[in-house]
Design brief:
Blueprint lengths: L1 E5 L6 H12 L3 E3 H11 L2 H11 L6 H11 L9 E4 L5 H13 L7 E6 L2 H9 L1 E3 L6 E3 L26 H15 L1 H8 L3 E5 L4 H10 L7 H7 L5
Parallel strand pairs: 1-3, 1-4, 2-3, 4-7
Antiparallel strand pairs: 5-6
The chain binds BIS(adenosine)-5'-pentaphosphate.
The site of BIS(adenosine)-5'-pentaphosphate (AP5) has 35 residues, from α1, α2, α3, β6 and α9.
């Protein structure tokens, strides 16, 4: 089952992807996280992406598409994946279809649009704390870590993302409206879009997503499908 999570900055795409990974046992592919990790490692991709991300800009389509085409060659995507942050432009969406065909992967089955007000976005982004080591995401009030300022998983120090500064968030919102919002109509026309009110607590939004999955299945069911002879 190949899924896309679509929505503005801070809508909860990463949060919903983590909940879906726990349920479906398929990988979460976040282009934002791939680019940030490349930045931390100082690779050529990272050197290109870091200043663009910090300025609230998008990386060029050809770069994002190359990142995705390499990621889709991984063995772990064969039984499904969750895309978070890709596609982000109509050009990327048009490129995705042939990429999937060339990689021998199924077409996208559902696109979940997480609809959130601007006020909620500001509150979510300003309270977000992220772990630079393993990508875990917390919120100071809605999803606080067990120990203040420390990642529950690795114990590392949590950080505020540089692109979460209020003026950068405004920049990212403008870009979202111009470049990414047209994807709502793009996927609606293709009969793939499921619009969700994503203002509710994360578990409630998750339950709505699960109810709209084409073939809801648990982690155990997914594991059984991978057993030899089944
Ligand atoms: P990316 O990391 O994808 O940023 P984004 O799309 O702006 O999304 P965010 O990560 O900000 O938010 P989210 O929706 O995942 O929310 P989260 O779950 O964290 O990309 C970063 C940058 O990389 C881009 O700006 C661009 O420069 C570049 N890039 C990436 N992909 C690209 C592409 N394809 N093409 C070109 N450039 C690309 O939640 C936010 C907070 O809210 C958290 O604290 C969370 O705990 C909390 N929260 C979540 N859900 C709820 C809830 N239901 N109730 C209460 N709190 C909640």
């Amino acid at each position: 089952m190949n899924l896309i999570l679509l929505g503005p900055p801070g809508a909860g795409k990463g949060t919903q992807a983590s909940l879906l990974v726990a349920r479906l046992a398929i990988p979460h592919i976040s282009t934002g996280e791939i680019l940030r990790e490349a930045g931390r490692r100082g690779t050529q991709l990272g050197l290109l992406a870091k200043p663009l991300i910090e300025a609230g800009h998008l990386v060029p389509d050809e770069v994002a598409i190359r990142v995705m085409s390499e990621r889709l060659l991984g063995q772990d995507v064969k039984s499904g994946f969750i895309l978070d942050g890709f596609p982000r432009t109509v050009g990327q969406a048009e490129a995705l279809e042939p990429l999937l065909r060339e990689a021998g992967l199924a077409a996208i089955g559902r696109v979940f649009f997480l609809d959130v007000s601007d006020e909620k976005i500001a509150a979510r982004v300003s309270g977000r704390r992220s772990c630079p080591r393993d990508g875990q995401v917390f919120h100071v009030t809605a999803n606080p870590p067990r120990v203040e300022g420390r990642c529950d998983q690795c114990g590392g120090a949590l950080e505020t993302r540089e692109d979460d500064e209020p003026e950068m968030v405004l920049e990212r919102m403008k870009l979202y409206r111009r470049s990414t919002e047209p994807l709502i109509a793009y996927y609606k026309e293709r009969g793939l879009l499921v619009s969700l009110d994503a203002m509710a607590p994360a578990e409630e939004v998750h339950a709505e997503i699960v109810a709209a999955l084409p073939f809801p299945r648990s982690r155990e069911e997914a594991a059984r499908e991978c057993e030899p002879g089944i």
